[in-house]
Amino acid sequence: MHLYLHVPFCKKACHYCDFHFVTNTSRKTEMVAAMVKELELQKDFLKQKSLKTIYFGGGTPSLLEFADFELIFSKIKSIYDLSQIEEITLEANPDDISLENIKTWKHFGVNRISLGIQTFDESALNFMNRAHTRADAITSLEMLIADGLPNISVDLIYSLIDQNGELGHEVLKQDLEIIAKYNLPHVSAYNLTIENKTVLGAWKKQGKLKEVEDEYAEEQFNILTKTLKELGYEQYEVSNFAKNGAYAVHNTSYWKNKAYLGIGPSAHSYDLEKRFANVANNAKYIKALDAGHLATQEEILSITDKVNDYILCGLRTIWGINISILKEIAGEVPKEFYEALNEFIMNGWVTMRTQNIVITEKGRIFSDRITSSLFFE
C-alpha cells in the first residue's frame, strides 16, 4: 500500500507552479496537527496495513522540522506496519539541504530525496523565481551524496524560456553535463508549460511572454532523451529516467493502477473504485479536521473511466498495458480498440510483448495520439 502526504508550504511562489501551496507558514503547526487527525480518520482506507512507500510532496516538505516529522511518523507507526517499507521519499529544495536536515530525514527513515533543481542556469532560476542558486544546487547534491542520502532524483525543466524567448539548447546540454558528472540514479524531466493561474500565465495573457514553438520543444525532448540514453538511463516512463533499475517505487504505483491514500489539502486518494480529492484550501482543510470530519469529495468511477485511466497511465511506461487486465476491468474489448492497435503496430509505434501493449521509441512522439485513439467510449 502507498501513502502520500501533501505539505502545502513554500518559501516563494515559483512563476510556473500551479500546485496548491501558500508562502505564509504561520499555520504550519496547525496544518501538521490536522494531517495527523486525517491519518487517524482515514486509518481504514487502505485495506492492507503494511505500507510499501511513503511520499512527502508539496509544496516544500523539506520545510518541516524534527517535531513535525515526529508527530506525523508517530501516527503513521501507530496505524501501519512499516517493516516492509521499500521507499520513503521527501521532496526537497536545494536551499533546504543542511547537515541538520539530512540527519533529521535519515532518523525518520527517509531513503530517497526528490531534489527540485529544475535547472543549473542562474538566469533561468531567477526568471522562474526559484529560491536557490546554481551554487546551492551543486552544494546540495554534494552534501546529500557525502552524508548518506545518495538515492537522489533530480527534477529538471526543459523548453525553458525568458521574456526574450527560448533560452537555447546550450542550457539543457549544460544541465545534463552536471547530471552526468554526479552519476545520479534518477531524473524526472518536464516540459515547461504555461498554466493559467501562474505568473507566467499572467505574462502570457498580457502579451509579455509566449510559449516556445512545438518544433523547439520536440528538439529539446530529443536532446534530453538521446543524452540520457547515452549516459545509461532507461526512460521507463515518459518523463522519468533511471539507472540500474532505480525506479520511483511510489510513482510507479500510480502508473500501475495501485491503491493509495493522500493526506493533506489538495491530496488525492484512490481505492480502485473511487477517487477522492481533498479541498485545496488550507483554512477549510484545518477547520474540517478540527471539527472531526474529512474535507474531501469523492468521484465514483465508471467502467469506462477505469479503463481509460489504466490506458492513460500504463502507456506512459515501459510496462505498457495488459490485454487480460483490460478484459478484467471492462469485460469486453471493442473491435475499434483492436483496429486502432493494429494500425499502430503496422506503423512501428506500438509493439506487443505477449499480452502487453507497449509504445515503441519511434512511437513516443505520437503517444498522446496513440493513447486517445485507444480510449474506450
From TrEMBL:
Domain Radical SAM core: 1-234
InterPro entries per UniProt: Coproporphyrinogen-III_oxidase, Elp3/MiaA/NifB-like_rSAM, HemW-like, rSAM, rSAM_horseshoe, rSAM_sf
Secreted keyword on record: no
UniProt entry tagged with the keyword Nucleus: no
UniProt-listed SUPFAM superfamilies: Radical SAM enzymes
Gene3D superfamilies linked to this entry: tm_1862 like domain (3.80.30.20)
Keywords: 4Fe-4S, Chaperone, Cytoplasm, Heme, Iron, Iron-sulfur, Metal-binding, S-adenosyl-L-methionine
Top-level taxon of the source organism: Bacteria
Pfam families: Radical_SAM
Intracellular or extracellular location(s): Cytoplasm
PROSITE patterns to which the protein is assigned, alphabetical: RADICAL_SAM
Family, per entry: Belongs to the anaerobic coproporphyrinogen-III oxidase family. HemW subfamily.
PANTHER family: COPROPORPHYRINIGEN III OXIDASE, RADICAL S-ADENOSYL METHIONINE DOMAIN-CONTAINING PROTEIN 1, MITOCHONDRIAL
Function summary: Probably acts as a heme chaperone, transferring heme to an unknown acceptor. Binds one molecule of heme per monomer, possibly covalently. Binds 1 [4Fe-4S] cluster. The cluster is coordinated with 3 cysteines and an exchangeable S-adenosyl-L-methionine.
Name this polypeptide is given: Heme chaperone HemW
Gene label: hemW
